Amino acid sequence: MTWRSFDTPPPPALALIELSSIARGMHVTDAMLKAADVQLVMSRSICSGKFMVLVAGEQAEVEASLDAGIDIAAECAVDTVRIDNVHPDVYPALSSTITLEMKNAKAIGILESFSVASLVEAIDKVAKEALVEMVGCRLAMALGGKAYLVFTGDVDAVTMSMDAGAAVVERRGLLVNKVVIPDPRPELFRTLV
Q: Given 84, 115, 145, which residue is the final one in a domain?
């Protein structure tokens, strides 16, 4: 299922569990779906032998689903996040399905995290902080378990959003790096996501 499968507007809440075990991740996925009326957004293995489960729905349902998943995950839980009142740009950013005219970008921001869950939380914060457009993100595949987000806008907006998003990841001690590039060369966009 992708964000395009959701009704408009997309679900108001999401939850993600990142696990150290693939087998336990599949068990957690089943438990989360059985515990509440949520939609499965992603359930897959990711780099460095981890697994991630992402569900969306109404706040109470997502909370119940996350609680059930955490119970099953137990010692295999690496990181978790629940976001209520999700910004509508988060779902398309997660699936990197945004189409954007990048030749007019005044600045780009790149936020890199050691954790998928912390980056997902940061995406919501970035989107809510200032008027920026999501280019997309990569979640742990071919990245050694790391994740990163790319977004664009004017320099001030990108800087404000970067500060807000980086604070979320930094608070968890999982910030790898953050970069704001003013007046980027158009060729750079071909390599971003």
A: 84
pLDDT (tens digit per residue) in 84-125: 999 988 988 887 655 555 556 799 999 999 989 999 999 999
Cα distance between residue 11 and residue 58, in whole Å: 6
Of 142, 150, 141, nearest to 177 by C-alpha is: 150
Mean pLDDT of 48-72: 96
Cβ partners under 8 Å of residue 119, min gap 6: 111, 113, 137, 139, 147, 148, 149, 169
175 dihedral zone (left: phi>0; alpha: psi -120 to 50; beta): beta
| The amino acid at 67 | D
Does 109 share its domain with 80?
no
**Before 10, cis peptide (omega within 30)?**
no
Do residue 61 and residue 138 come from a single domain?
no
Cα–Cα distance measured from residue 46 to residue 55, given in angstroms and rounded to the nearest whole number: 16
The boundaries of the domain holding residue 164 are 90-191
